[in-house]
Each structure stands twice: as structure tokens, then as C-alpha cells.
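Task card 7
Instruction: Convert sequence to C-alpha cells.
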Amino acid sequence: MRDTAQKAVHLAEGMGASYADCRVVQRESEFISVKNGEVEELASGDDLGLGVRVIVDGGWGFASTNRLSSAGVEDCVRRAGEIAASGARVRKKPVRLADEPAHVDSWERPVEVDPFEVDDAAKLDLLTRSSRAMMQQGVAVARAVLVFSRDTQVFANSEGSLIRQVLTESGGSLYALAVGRGNTQVRTYPCTVWHDIQGKGWEAIQQRDLLGNAPRVASEAVQLLSARPCPEMVTDVIIAPNELALQIHESIGHAVEADRILGHEADFAGTSFISPDMVGDFRYGSEKVNVFADPTLPGSRTSFKYDDEGVKTRRVDIINEGKLVGLTTSRETAFELGLGRSGGCMRANNYDHIPLVRMPNVSLAPGDVSFEELIASTEEGILLDQNRSWSIDDRRLNFQFGSEVGWLIEDGEIGEMVRDPIYADMTPDFWAKCDAIADEDDWRVIGYACGKGTPSQDGRVAHGCSHARFSGVKVGAKER
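Output:
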């Protein structure tokens, strides 16, 4: 893989590229699903290929191939160069990259138990028993899922970098669908979106205890059938981490992507209400709100030492005491914004996708109260858990989120369960209403997937947060 990556870079230089990089990626994957006690899907894959980026005549070109013969690599590099040259007629200004030193390194994400070494029979047994435990509660659909992947990647560029990384990840989830009383209700665990994948091994599955949580998840889905709709009101809203992570993703994560802000990217999630001159001055939220991007966080599916253009990663502050202070950047956008270095946020879904600015653990820092104190200090409100739907405009301003379940809070105690809760607001107004955040004992990182770009990439993203309270938010029930 090292020889192939370096060969592609040298070929590109010989064809006139002023800059070139190559990623050679081997991906192992496994997906297992059990529905209503029976195997629904059992799939595995092993893929190998390379992607080449070049700058020719001041413009980008990208091509990929799974033909790693000398002829295949040479053809791929030639196509990347032709694509770069073809853009000269429409290019407004040449591509410039922020400086980054050359790195020669090898790094593997720590794994306690290799998930690919765990016996398939043990995986199926866990899923089957979890699914049947949910069925015993009377749900119509009881699905249990496990998903694993490992990327072995070598990156080389014309500036002298040669980097090998091995990234293993594991996820698993429960899904219970109840039907009755003229409606359907869903409960999931631990996360609605893409199984809360973690940058860990089999230990991630053991830690979440799918079998132990299965009866509760299904029971709550059944209870929701007879719960009354969420009352319409303006009240304090406490949002659980598995819901708040998506709120961070949609109303902060996408909004601070520099490629959207600079007009380089608009597909799939639109642009942004932020402009470069707002950094350092704009009030994004209350003084309680501190947000950072940190790929060095251990155990996350977006934990890595180098991004996909060879930038060594580090923590970058995004919001400090409510003020916007930073963005997620690439080498190109960092240069355009006048920054000294990229934030190390460029990643691609696989070898056959060009790297894009992605959210590397864009997270809400923990607060200074326990979860119990957060509830006890709420006179009237609602606790929202697990996302069921979301909608936000293409500038990341107006939004409406729906949750799987709500629990009314009165005089500091969690009470009645209500169904189909939704809440709506404007991004800066909403984050300005944040008046309390639970502490680090309640804080966790949740792994998501995110669509972006054309062709669409299912990119790896993750967000850390704990329960947080927002005052005076409009809530109600979604009509069904």
C-alpha cells in the first residue's frame, strides 16, 4: 500500500501536478440484523482501492480506482490530471493550501477486543435473544443490529508525508415498533441515527448491554401507544444526549463548515447563515455554551491522528462562552480565511470519494451540575429523548425536531410520559436559551452518519454532549 501510494504521487508529479496526494484504503466490514427473532441480514465485505487528488494549473482534479496494477494506477492519475486541467476555463482563482509539515507516522485506534475475531454465533445469539426479549413486550417489530468496520489507510503526498492509520469501529442498536390505538410508536437504543458507532472494538457492544436494555426499550414503545399527545406550551426543555447530538450536528456542525461558508459546497445540507466576518464577534448562544472540534478524543468514530489530507489533528474551539470563535476547515479553506493551519477536518467516506470538510467530534462541553440537579432545579418542563424526525432550512436557521418520547417535569420531578413531542426555534435564539448543562459524569460521545456532497458520501461524524436545559422553548405534538 505504501509503494502504491508513493508511486501514484510520483506519477502525478511527472505529469505536471504542482501538488498531489493519494489515499490507498482497505476496508473490512460486517453487518448483522435480526428481526423478530430471525436473521434478517448477514453481510460482510472487503474492499481495496485508491483515490488521487492533484493540483494542475491551479485547479483540483480527483480520480479513483480499484485496479492497483501499474496500468490501473497510471490511468487513474492521468484522469485526475485531465479533470484538473479541464477546470481552467471556469476557475476564478488558483487553489492555495495552508502550510502543513510533512509527517511520516503510523497510528492505530486502540481496540481491546477485535470485533472481527468474535465468533459469528456469539453475535447472532446476542441479537436473537435481544430481539426476542423485545417481542415479549408485545411490539410488532423487534430489530437488533450489529455493525463493524476497519479501514487500513496509507496516505502519501508530494510534500513528503507518508502516513498509515488503522481505524476500527463498532456499533449496535435496538429498534422496537409498537402498533395499536390507531397509531404507531417507536423506541430505539442507544441512538436513532446509525447505531451510535464508536471507535472501539467488541467492548463497545459489551458496554451498551443490548440484552439488558431490550425489555425497557420495547415496553416504552408499547406505553407510548396509550400516552396522551405532548401538550402545546412554551416551557423549559431538557434534551437528552442522544437527541442533543443531532441538534448540535444540524444547527452548529453544518453551519460552521468552512466550505459551506465560502460557497465551495451547498449540496445535501445547503449553505450557512454564517459569514467569515462573524468569527470572533457573533453571539451564537448563552455564556453556558462552549463548543469544540477535537479528533483526538479517544473512543469516538471520528477519532484519528491525521485527516485525509495529511493534517495532524488538534482541538479547535468553535464557540467560547457563547461567542463564535472558530470553524471546521481544510487546508484550502484555511488559506482562504487567512488561518495559519487547517483544523484537520478533511475526510472521505472511502477511497472512491474526494475528501470534504467534516465534523470531527464537534461537541458541547459539559457543564457544572449533575443530571439529578438539572432535573431538581426545573420547576416545569419536559425531558425529550431520542430523535424521531428533524427539519432545518438550508442556511441552518429555522428548525423543527421531533422526539420519540417526552416526560413532563413538575416541581423538579420526572412525571407523565407523553407521545409525539416536537420543538421548534431559530438557531441563535435557541442556543441563547441554554441555561444549564449537566456535568462530565453525564457526558458521552455519540457516533452518527451524515450525507454530504455529490456523489453523496455517508461520512463518519460524532458529537459529545450531556443533558442540557433550554428555557422558554415552544413544544407541541406532531399530528399523526
